[in-house]
User: What shape does this take?
Amino acid sequence: MSDPRTHINPKGVDLRLWRQVFSSRSLALGLVLTLIFTGAALLSLIWTPYDIETLNIANKIKTPSAAHWLGTDHFGRDILSMIMVGARTSIAVAVVAVGIGMTFGVPLGLFAAARKGSVLDELIMRANDLIFAFPALLIAIMITATFGASAVNAIIAIGVFNIPVFARLTRSGALTLWQREFVLAARVAGKNAARISFEHILPNVTNLLIVQGTIQFSLGILAEAGLSYVGLGAQPPIPSWGRMLADSQTMISFAPHMALFPGLAILLTVLGLNLMGDGLRDLFDPKLRRARS
Assistant: This one.
């Protein structure tokens, strides 16, 4: 006979987890906003209201209407379609950049924690400090000066900046675990530092990495928009929210919709990711959730 206290339905779905997700307003709202823009980006792969590569000068700078819900730009292109494709660009850049940061930063953090106080630990952390001394924009300028402006170089610049973020976080979280009983038991069992790091330490810092990954994802979107705004990100004809803002700055007095809607897209996407990160932090940390309630 099944336990009436269980929260698992017959299909195996943990109902308690979903109740916690939707009981957090910030997490629920952040999840909805993120899903909207992610859905728009995915939809743009197969359909947009208008072809963004087709110029229609006779229809330029039209205000929002039934034909063009968000209006048109100075080339007559549909702004809604541009925002949908721009979402794809921003999300792709942010995802890959965060992936680069995690791929290199997490192993470095685990290694540094396992070798705490050693010369290698000091070298890794001082290298992280050196990267932190150069903002992503400055790194992008240096990379662009060498290889040229492109979305790929923007990804590299943002990804390099993410490496020390994840390395520091992983090292900090791992250091608190190395003195725990289960780690000491693993050492007694004959496991080496590398095996302990990946089998025991990494699973216990995953929650921290998920929350930080969400935050870095939002910062990645902001960084991509900033780099595109100054001409160092995605290049034409690839749409970008940042470049849409740059193109509209000289026409904002008579065509404010050209800047309003890309700006709102950036604002709402970053807001959604930050709210989701805040909600995930509460979800993964019961003590913090109780303190806020």
Observations:
- The domain at 70-292 is CATH 1.10.3720.10 (MetI-like fold).
- Residues 193-229 form the longest helix (37 residues).
